[in-house]
Design goal:
Length: about 475
């Protein structure tokens, strides 16, 4: 522990931060923004006080958007400007991982934990995305460190800080509240004779929720049927969704099965030797080891009832998983073999310059190139993605918050529609139409193409645009 008090320690954590930050800047601006990220970008243009109400529509808590709003005032809303905040929090998390593992193990093991964190493909992906997940992982890891400090040095100020952190976790992502439920079970056991600690740790976030949450946010929390049905991109949980979630979170089935075997051995050995270890730390380690597994099982069960089971909603369990490896296999040969195996899988699976599912950057460039040659209409279906198109088509128009202004868009011969019924009311003036579709429905799509066919338009598809169906309807011949 003397290292923490030395100058070498500060040099080491600075190096960890810089290496993580630079590593996660690789290709950060290459993939274009996609739908979820453009919501983050739009929120930076709102009045600060209105962000909370925008979060009601987005069905996500607003803490991340508050921070991004402030970040954007310093670094702008380019891809790098927006995504760099996630890189920043991811790099801070690497420092926390090092400090935590060093406290419970050795410097070498702490550096190995940082390596696993840094090269984790899923964490790398979300460490470059303008969404809340890097912030959430930072808060979760800081939360673990604070719990450790509270377990070893019981102070009321630490308990109060933990209460605020619990609120911020919940105010960043609702599903992360699962980990707080298991934290509550652990804390009520450890502090069962010190009620003031429980009141500070859980009374504080409850009070802050009552002060900050709106009625619509409560609707989201209690999984109203309407909210559930609107999550069409998240199916009810089944065996297939369970299998799909393993590799992103636990790197591979091999790593997961190995972890479960080592966990079983760990529990058996520790239960037999419990009397030689401080009880508080023993139960704290059990909390770290079992919490991610219990969260996974609980969310899968909830996912049978409502649309909440998705691997990214469980991303907050990854720091627990990484730290658990060093608790279970602390300073054994098996640890170093297992770490090499994990790093091998990570390096094999990590993807640089990974696509973000829909390429509206190319769509905007294509539209501007075609407009240089002839007068055309640009139609985007649906309203959900028009902001994404305008971000790349004309950033000043986006900043002026005109991406949803139909009159301003019409002046540029740009239109957005929800379905066929809105298309037939557009004044296309027999000009060619460049038609972009995302989230289209089959029946509506047939009606749209029949409309152009009946209007004697010839059509041709533009291939190779990821996540976007692009059709060019050519001006009808007389």
């Amino acid at each position: 522990m003397e290292l923490i008090k030395s100058k070498n320690f500060y040099f080491l954590i600075a190096s960890i931060f810089i290496v993580n930050f630079l590593f996660k800047l690789i290709y950060i601006a290459s993939p274009c923004l996609w739908y979820d990220e453009i919501i983050s970008a739009k929120d930076t243009l709102l009045d600060f006080g209105h962000i909370k109400h925008e979060a009601e529509w987005d069905k996500n808590p607003p803490f991340y958007h508050y921070l991004l709003w402030m970040w954007s005032k310093l670094f702008g809303i380019s891809e790098i400007g927006l995504r760099s905040m996630s890189v920043f929090f991811s790099s801070l998390t690497a420092i926390l991982i090092f400090i935590f593992v060093f406290k419970i193990s050795t410097k070498v093991n702490a550096l190995l934990a940082v390596a696993i964190f840094t090269f984790h493909p899923y964490l790398y992906y979300f460490g470059q995305e303008a969404r809340c997940y890097s912030l959430l992982i930072f808060l979760i890891t800081l939360n673990l460190l604070v719990i450790y400090n509270l377990a070893t040095k019981q102070r009321l100020t630490t308990a109060l800080f933990l209460g605020v952190l619990n609120f911020l976790i919940f105010y960043t992502h609702y599903v992360a509240g699962l980990i707080l439920a298991f934290q509550f079970l652990y804390m009520t056991f450890v502090f069962r004779k010190k009620l003031i600690y429980i009141l500070l740790i859980y009374g504080t976030p409850i009070l802050l929720v009552l002060l900050r949450f709106t009625r619509k946010q409560y609707d989201v929390l209690f999984f109203s049927n309407k909210m559930s049905q609107e999550k069409r991109n998240v199916p009810l949980s089944d065996w297939d969704t369970l299998k799909e979630s393993i590799s992103p979170l636990f790197i591979s089935w091999v790593v997961l099965v190995g972890s479960l075997v080592f966990l079983l051995v760990f529990v058996v050995k520790k239960m037999n030797k419990r009397n030689i270890e401080n009880d508080t730390l023993f139960y704290f380690k059990l909390y770290i080891v079992f919490s991610p597994l219990l969260c996974f099982i609980s969310l899968f069960g909830l996912g049978k009832l409502t649309n909440v089971f998705h691997e990214r909603y469980l991303i907050f369990t990854i720091p627990y998983f990484i730290i658990s490896i060093f608790i279970i296999l602390n300073q054994t040969v098996a640890l170093y073999i297992f770490v090499i195996l994990i790093l091998g899988f990570e390096i094999k699976n990590i993807k640089f310059n990974q696509s973000r599912k829909m390429d509206y950057k190319f769509c905007a460039l294509l539209a501007k190139e075609v407009q240089k040659k002839e007068e055309i209409n640009i139609v985007v279906q649906t309203q959900d993605v028009i902001s994404l198109f305008i971000y790349y088509y004309d950033i000043e128009m986006f900043i002026a918050k005109n991406s949803g202004n139909k009159e301003k868009l019409a002046e540029r011969k740009i239109y957005y529609i929800e379905d066929y019924s809105e298309l037939i009311n557009l004044k296309l003036d027999k000009k060619p139409v460049l038609f972009y579709q995302t989230y289209q429905r089959k029946e509506d799509d047939i009606k749209i193409h029949n409309f152009f066919k009946d209007s004697k338009y010839n059509s041709g598809s533009v291939l190779g645009i990821e996540g976007v169906k692009c059709t060019y309807f050519i001006k009808p011949t007389e």
